[in-house]
């Protein structure tokens, strides 16, 4: 049930500032933050995005997985224990996680158009991961 709920939260959350809809919203809006919010506030918001990308936190800022590594490890173990094949959702989450350092770098360079495109790519990959995971867990 926890995986069913996680898929629901990522794919169809009760509010748009959670899960994949939140990634899409950031992708649509991030490039306009400096004009909309002002340079100083936008810089604070971008710093907060980078902190999220470095989670779980690493003091050096080098753990750029946005927690995907924890989800992948959980799915690997849960799949083994339950006898379920989570290899495709894990594949898509790995691809998503691989894009996180590029996303952080785009933000550090203040290339917000590139960051927007990367947020969309991550959202695409995670949509695929959670749709596949949902199909698996809803058929148990």
Topology:
Blueprint: H1 2-11, H2 19-29, H3 33-37, H4 39-53, H5 68-82, H6 87-108, H7 112-137
Computed Rg: 16 Å
Number of beta strands: 0
By DSSP (H or I, 4+ residues per run), the number of helices equals 7
Beta-strand level of the residues, as a percent range? under 5%
Largest sheet: none
pLDDT average, as an integer?
Answer: 94
- The helix-strand sequence is HHHHHHH
Helix fraction bin: over 70%
Shape: elongated
Taking the alpha carbons of the first and last residues, their distance comes to 10 Å
Indicate the multimeric state. Answer: single chain
* Unreliable runs: none
Output the structural class: mainly alpha
Task: Please provide a brief summary of the model.
The chain has seven helices and no strands.
Q: Can you walk me through this structure?
A:
The protein has 140 residues and is mainly alpha-helical. It has 7 helices and no strands. Helix 2 (19-29) runs antiparallel to helix 7 (112-137) and helix 4 runs antiparallel to helix 6. The longest helix is centred in the C-terminal third of the chain and has 26 residues, at 112-137. It is elongated. The termini are close together. The mean pLDDT is 94.
Attribute tags:
140 residues, mainly alpha, 0% strand
